[in-house]
Amino acid sequence: MEKKDVQRLFMQHYAKMLRVARTILGDEQESKDVVSDVFANLLHGHTVLVDGSEERYLLTSVRNQCLKRLRHEEVKQRMSCKMVTAELSTDMCDEDERMADIDEFVATHFSQQERRIFCLRFSDGCSYAEIAASEGISTVAVWKHLSHVLTLIRNHFKK
Amino acid sequence: MQTKVNRQLYFDMQEHPERYTDEQVKAMMDELDREPDTEQAWQEWVESEKLKVKSEKCRPDSIASRFTLHTSHSHRRWLQIAAIMIGVVLISGIAIAAIYMNRQWTMNDEQRMVVDGQQAENNDSSASPILFDNVPLDSVLGVVAAHYQKVVCFRDEAPRSMKLIMTWQPDAPLDDFLDRLNAFDGLSLRLENDTVFVTNEEDKP
């Protein structure tokens, strides 16, 4: 992809992408790293984004990269505790498969409202205030719903 | 209230919301939704990409790969020439060994090759056992290997001049003959693909 195209996408979507990354990782620097990596892949790779699908692609990429990162950290931690011996290689192989499972996991494990909130946050990049307004509930209630969803997803994908 | 995004605190707030006040939760949400300076982030990203490209160029394996790209054609050409030369030398060696052996069989009294009389009478030379009488290993293997269409490679020079007295049955498998040769002290012969490798095995029991 041309640098000017990457710049346009960066200016349009960086804030939302960073928001998604922060929500999953809870770490400012790591979140910036993930978002930077997604744009670097666009610049150096051969991905062609169709108009209208750009935002969804970028936010989904950030979401998946963040979950992969958390999972790798978990595996590394377990390796350092000598509880796992040769798990990393197989982890890498079925990583993409796992990422494809997220939507199915969300669809089967959460209430309709939680699914909507998840979608508003991670597919549309909405803020807590925007989600609260959309759902007609308080921001703290949104926080609790998202916390429940994220805790279960993290635990599921750390396995 | 200003709360820095900190993973440990953030995860704890998610898993144990009852431990935190609504104000603390709202502060965390504000921090998570804080608008970044996108222009500055773009500049930083561009700079980091430039640094990545530079460091990539400076990596030893990157330099090595460029060198390999530039030199691969000439390197391959030299390998082809070397392979041709080795082939020519091997074929010449086999031919010289065959001529040398032929002359030895007919002219040299000390290094005689005696065809078993009984077999000679039957005039069945293909199955006749051949006696190598005080013949250098070099020459013995030249004949035997040519018969089995193998190539001989001496990895050590010492065994080359080793003189042997033994019989060879041309219709027996080559492995049998090599096994018998391997029984000699200090001698090791191994067949790999179509080559008989000969090494000097000093510490052979």
Describe this structure in words.
- The complex is a heterodimer of chains A (about 160) and B (about 200).
- Chain A is mainly α.
- In chain A, about 80% of the residues lie in helices and about 0% in strands.
- The longest helix of chain A has 27 residues, at about 55-80.
- Chain A starts with a helix and ends with a helix.
- Among the domains of chain B are: about 1-35, no CATH class; about 95-200, Phage tail protein beta-alpha-beta fold, CATH 3.55.50.30.
- Chain B starts with 6 loop residues before the first helix and ends in a 5-residue tail after the last strand.
- The interface of A and B includes residues 19 and 40 of A.
Oligomer: heterodimer
Specify the helix fraction band of chain A: over 70%
Low-confidence stretches of chain B: 109-125
Structural category of chain B: alpha+beta
Q: Give the H and E element order of chain B.
A: HHHHEHEHEEHEE
Q: Segments of chain A where pLDDT lies below 50 for 5+ residues? A: 83-93
Shape-level CATH architecture of chain A: Up-down Bundle
Overall geometry of chain A comes to globular
Strand-residue proportion of chain B:
15-25%
Report the radius of gyration of chain B as a whole number of Å.
Answer: 38 Å
Largest sheet: number of strands, sense, barrel closure of chain A: none
Walk across the major sheet of chain B and give the strand order.
1-2-4
Q: Keywords, please?
A:
heterodimer; A: 159 residues; mainly alpha; Butyryl-CoA Dehydrogenase, subunit A, domain 3; globular; B: 205 residues; alpha+beta; Phage tail protein beta-alpha-beta fold; three-stranded antiparallel beta sheet; three-stranded mixed beta sheet; 57% helix; elongated
